[in-house]
Structure formats: structure tokens, C-alpha cells
Write a structure and sequence with these properties.
CATH topology of the largest domain: Cytochrome Bc1 Complex, Chain D, domain 2
CATH class of the largest domain: Mainly Alpha
Shape: globular
Order of helices and strands: HHHHHHHHHHHH
CATH architecture of the largest domain: Orthogonal Bundle
Number of helices: 12
Largest sheet: none
Bound molecules: heme C
Number of strands: 0
């Protein structure tokens, strides 16, 4: 597991002590490397998933009820920064999503889902586990910090070919909940989709349709099931271009 901890570039790692410019370069490199190493991670962690045993809702409820401390969350975020970037902007190729500025409770829900294998990604399940985030308070704090970040990483967009179909489908089927411009709505626990990397969005839509996000509401899955492939690609592209 130590190689992976190095990949995470935690604040204690030597990476953090080097000059800022070199550090940024190294981080970019580390993020690319992390993305490229995904299949290897999958092989390494596949067996460790028993540790991410299915849990009930009590941790999610406790994390949502906790009084979040963003300053404490900043130090926990050191691990996350290696992949999601110090600005929380993720990677434009969509391998890693932007999380900056998402409502705290949206982030808490996703972290809790990864912790109980309701969202499946070996890297995230590993870094959201109990060794990295001890409990409900840590989840609340790191989410509160990520919510305060403002991105400098530009969104990765699609190729533009399916935009018209995507725009129509978005307005017709999705905007009623997510709003025309895909902004966050903390009160309704709606994630911000505007400006998210297109390839990431497309993957989430396909994963949800394929049943790989079991904790996504059944009604939501139903709406996504009604989309054809062109609409899925187009919606992802359409949203990625929004500010
Ligand atoms: C090794 C790389 C890596 C590290 C480290 C990492 N993440 Fe992630 N994270 C990912 C990937 C990859 C995804 C997308 C998974 C997918 O496609 O479903 C993701 C997804 C997420 C999401 C879901 C975003 C959304 O829009 O639904 C959240 C929230 C998140 N990460 C938060 C964190 C936090 C907080 C930390 C630190 C405790 C962290 N991540 C550490 C790679 C990483
Ligand atoms: C009934 C209201 C509703 C409708 C209609 C709806 N959504 Fe959602 N959507 C939500 C909520 C709530 C969430 C947060 C789900 C969660 O907690 O995992 C969400 C999450 C998402 C996510 C996950 C983002 C991430 O990274 O985790 C995507 C992508 C998405 N919606 C796309 C769409 C698209 C595309 C449509 C139209 C085809 C659509 N939604 C229609 C309410 C809705």
C-alpha cells in the first residue's frame, strides 16, 4: 500500500516541501500517473475491498448531522489533492472528477457511498476508507473544505457532434430537477453538473444505467434509462461547456 500512499502526495511527503512551481509540475505528473495506474490499483485493491464492508445509513446520517470544520478538512484534503488537484478541479480527460464547490452534503453522500460500496471505484473506495477518513466527522470536514475550493482547472469538453441531441434531452428530461444550467442546489442535494468534465459525466451516466451506482434513486435510473447513446454523449458534452 505504500506505493499508493506516495501517489497520494500527502502533506507529509517530500513533494510538499519543494518549491511551488516544481510542486505543481510534480502534482500534475502524479495525477497523470495515478490515472494511468488505475488498472494496477484495481488489481492491488480488488481483494482489500472486504475492508470496505457494506454499512448501513448511520454513518451518512452522522456525517450530515455533524458540525463541519473546513479548517480541519484542509489537512485531510492533502490525500485527495494528489488526484483531484489542490484546486479540486480533477483531470480534464474525465478520469478524475472536479469536486470543487460542490455542496458539502452532496460530497458527504458520495463519500459515504464509496465507503459502503454503493459507488464502485477502487481508488476512491481506498482513499475514502477508514484508514484515510476515520469516521463521520472526518467525512463532514473534508467535504466542507472541498466545498470551499474554487477551480482553476478548465473542464474537458466533448467533440461537439451530439450537442443538439444532448441539449434537447437535457431541457426535456433533466432540467426540471437540475435546472437549465446544471447548477448545484444544496437544499435539494443536487450536484453541480455544469463544467464537470464530459468524459466523467458520460461514464457516470453509463455506469448508472448499467446498475453500477446502486444508491442512485430508482427514479433517477429510470430517467437515464430512457436516453439513447447519442443523448448521453450529448448531455455530457452540453453540461461540460456550461459555466
Ligand atoms: C487515487 C486517486 C484519488 C484520490 C486520492 C481521491 N480520489 Fe476522489 N475520485 C477519484 C476518481 C477516479 C473518482 C471517480 C470515480 C468514478 O468514476 O465513479 C473520484 C470521485 C470522487 C467523488 C465523487 C464526485 C462526484 O461528482 O460524484 C468525490 C466526492 C471524491 N472523489 C472525493 C474525494 C476525497 C474527499 C478524497 C480524499 C479523502 C479523494 N476523493 C481522494 C480518484 C481519487
Ligand atoms: C427527480 C429529479 C432529477 C431528475 C429528473 C434528474 N436528476 Fe440527476 N440527480 C438528481 C439527484 C438528487 C442527484 C444526486 C444523486 C446522488 O445522491 O447520487 C442526481 C445526480 C446526477 C448525476 C451524478 C453526478 C455525480 O457526479 O455524482 C448525474 C450525472 C445526473 N444526475 C444527470 C442527470 C441527467 C442527465 C438527467 C436527465 C436525463 C437527470 N440527472 C435527471 C436529481 C434528478
Amino acid at each position: 500500500m505504500h506505493e499508493v500512499e506516495g501517489c497520494a502526495g500527502s502533506p507529509r511527503s517530500p513533494v510538499a516541501q519543494r518549491p511551488a512551481a516544481a510542486r505543481r509540475g510534480t502534482r500534475r505528473y502524479a495525477r497523470t500517473l495515478c490515472a494511468l495506474l488505475a488498472p494496477a490499483f484495481a488489481a492491488m485493491f480488488g481483494t482489500a475491498l472486504a475492508d470496505v464492508a457494506a454499512r448501513n445509513d448511520s454513518e451518512l446520517k452522522a456525517a450530515l448531522a455533524a458540525a463541519p470544520d473546513a479548517a480541519r478538512g484542509a489537512s485531510l484534503y492533502g490525500t485527495c489533492a494528489a488526484c483531484h488537484g489542490p484546486d479540486g478541479g480533477g483531470v480534464a480527460d474525465g478520469s478524475i472528477p472536479a469536486i470543487a464547490g460542490q455542496p458539502q452534503r452532496v460530497l458527504v453522500k458520495q463519500l459515504a457511498d464509496f465507503r459502503r460500496s454503493q459507488r464502485l471505484d477502487v481508488r476512491m473506495e481506498h482513499f475514502a476508507d477508514r484508514r484515510h477518513l476515520g469516521g463521520a466527522q472526518d467525512i463532514a470536514d473534508v467535504a466542507a473544505y472541498a466545498a470551499t475550493l474554487s477551480r482553476t482547472t478548465a473542464a474537458g469538453i466533448g467533440d461537439g457532434t451530439m450537442l443538439a441531441a444532448g441539449g434537447r434531452a437535457w431541457i426535456g428530461r433533466c432540467a426540471g430537477c437540475h435546472g437549465g444550467t446544471g447548477q448545484a442546489n444544496a437544499a435539494r442535494a443536487l450536484p453541480r453538473l455544469a463544467g464537470q468534465h464530459a468524459a466523467y459525466l458520460e461514464r457516470q451516466l453509463l455506469d448508472t444505467v448499467a446498475g453500477r451506482r446502486p444508491n442512485m434513486a430508482a427514479t433517477h435510473r429510470g430517467v437515464l434509462n430512457g436516453l439513447d447513446p447519442a443523448e448521453i454523449t450529448g448531455i455530457a458534452d452540453y453540461l461540460s461547456r456550461m459555466k
